[in-house]
Model the fold of this input.
Amino acid sequence: MADSTLDPLEYYARPGLMTEAQEQASLPAGLPTDIAALCQVVQGLLLHMLWAERYGIQLPPERRQETQIRRVAQKLRRIIELDARPLTVARPLEKRVVSECRDFSTLLCAMLRYQGVPARARCGFATYFLPDHYEDHWVCEYWKADEQRWVMVDAQLDQFQRQVLGIQFDPLDVPADSFLPAGKAWLLCRAGQADAEKFGIFDMHGLWFIRGDLVRDVAALNKMELLPWDIWGLIEREEQDISPADLALLDQAAALTVADNSAFPALRALYETDARLRVPHVIKSYHDTGVETVAIA
Done:
C-alpha cells in the first residue's frame, strides 16, 4: 500500500494523489480554518458548469474543458492563471474555474487535509436537486473531533443555489437522508427498499449507474477522487456481464463504505487487493467526442 496506516483519521488528514498541491503548495497557506469560510473560498474560485447560465454566464466551449482537470494542483494552477490574487479573494464569475460537483468537494477536501483535518470526498446521490429523485452528486466529509463524527458538507451550495433550490437544511451539516453515499443507495436498492430508476442524472439511471458511483466512492475513500465520467474495473462491465461474485464484492464494498471507522482497514485491504475496484494506471474517460484513454499515475 502506498499509505499503510490503518488509522482512518491519520490517513484522511494527509493528501493523496488527486488532492496534493505539489508546486502550488504555498497557495493554501493563508486560508481560513473555519469550515463556513473555507466553503466561501471554494465557491469564490469555482463555477459549476451546469449552473453557469443561471448566474448569467455563457461559457465558450474551450472553458468547458476545465472540468477535465482531475488533480487539485492543476486546478490551483488554472485558478491562478485566470486571476493571480490570493485564494481568499472571490473571483468574478467569468474568472472562476469551470467545474462540477466533484471539484467543489475535492478542493474543500484538499484544503482541509492541508490543515491536517481528516477529510474525504464522497460520491453518491442528493435528494435536494429534483423532487422524488436521487441526483448524482459529490459532497465532502470532515471529522469533527469535538463531536466524534463525520460531518457532510456541500461546498457547492452557495446562497444563490440555496435560494433557487429552496434548501432548508444547513449545507455545512447535510442531514443523512439528504445525501446517500453510493454504497447506501446500492444496499437499499439491492434490498428492494428503494427504486434504482430514481437514482442517476439526465437520462442515465438505474442499478448500473449506482454501481459506477459505488466504485468511484470506494476509490475516493482510498484517496483516488476521479472524475464522474472516468471508468475502470466494474464500472466498465455491461449489466449482463456482472457475475454473482461481482455482486458479492459490490455488496461487501458497499457495506464497508457506510460502516464506522472500525471498517477502514478492511476497506483499504479490499481496494488494494481487488483489481475490479482499484484504480489502474490507465483508465478510460468519457468526453463529448467519445472515450479517451488517460494515464493516472
